[in-house]
Amino acid sequence: MNPRRTGRILSLVVHKIFALLVAFAVGSGAAASEVPLRTVEALSPVYTVDREHRSMMGPSSAQTLRFPEADQPELLWVTGFQSRMVAADGISPMPDELMCHSNLDFNREHHAALHDIPIYHTERLFTLSQGQLEIELPDGFGLPYYSDEEFILSTQVLQLNHDGQSREVRHRITLEYVRQRDLEAAGAAMKPLFATSGWGLVSLGESPAHWGREETVEEHHGPGCLPGTAAAEDLRDDVLGRSFSGHWVVPPGRQVNRTLVTDLLALRYDTTVHYIAVHLHPFAESIELRDLTAGETVFKSDVEGYADRIGIRRLQHFEDDEGIPMYADHEYELVSVYNNTTDRDQDSMAVLLLYLLDTEFELKAPVMLGSSAPPGE
Fold first, then answer.
1. This prediction's pTM
2. Fold that domain 3-194 belongs to in CATH
3. Contact 219, 178 (CB under 8 A)
4. Phi and psi of 219, rounded to 5°?
5. Best CATH choice for the domain 196-357 from the list 3.40.462, 3.30.1360, 2.130.10, 2.60.120
6. Burial of 139 (0-12, 13-18, 19+ CB in 10 A)
7. In this predicted model, what pLDDT tens digit does every residue of 240-275 receive, in sequence order?
8. Cα 356 from Cα 276, distance rounded (Å)
9. Could you tell me the sign of the dihedral formed by the alpha carbons of 116, 118, 119, 125, in that order?
10. What are the residues facing 358 on neighbouring strands?
């Protein structure tokens, strides 16, 4: 038998055994969904929106978010994240189209040390924006964090349909979680997830390029991302020293961009994805994750805009208890489609946040390592 195929079969067998053991633990007592759900709530500063603010250009801020149990380290399971636009009073609803994004980041180095795991490829835990204002992981699934870990909440506003009015707005944030001790008391367990992401890029060189790859074959790696122009100071260099941007200009007309995201996803082992969240900018038509090795679409999200104004009304996300298999030795491509129907340049991003089964997770007693604030605070 082909050694590569044998390794794949063994990997999937280990994954299935792990899933069955976790399922047995959940089934041996109460369902995890019956355990009390706890929340951390926060309000951003008040932002004045009195003019046009293009994507990533409006008023913004960053603040620290902590669990109430921070003084006594214990294991918690993050299960959801919500963001709403409200007035200065923190209650009255305001239009969703005023949201640019709500991002939640963690300190990946500190997290890895606490959990005795390799450092994650990304520090981004959640991103919410127009079209998707909440993430609720499937019942019984969660992201394990210790109560003394800190998060950085970054919020920003947007105004692409300025009507002359001035508005005072805020982001109202809710982070949902359950405590491990409550799970144990109920005889329940969670299935652990970890987060990674793939994002569209344009090459800032003169020709298409593949992030982190010098020698490629289009049949296996796709055509590479388009050469383009950065829309802001979002510049990234790969290991070969080539420059890319994840926030780029879309001229009038339709644009299809293909980015090899294998190295960005950085999968260490075969697993399953159980939730996929989407971040796009107005004028997006769709975003798709393709398995180039298998020649299949893993997930595609179509976008619905507004008929009478600029913005994203809704888009599709993915969630499923069974999950979709993803493989460490497969090549993956992100395909973004924008249709700029105006007569001026617009800007774009294309990001998928994936939440995958963590087969390396082990329950451990919390340890004290000092400050866990993400870098830059």
1. 0.89
2. Jelly Rolls (2.60.120)
3. no
4. -60, -35
5. 2.60.120
6. middle
7. 999 999 999 999 999 999 999 999 999 999 999 999
8. 9
9. negative
10. none
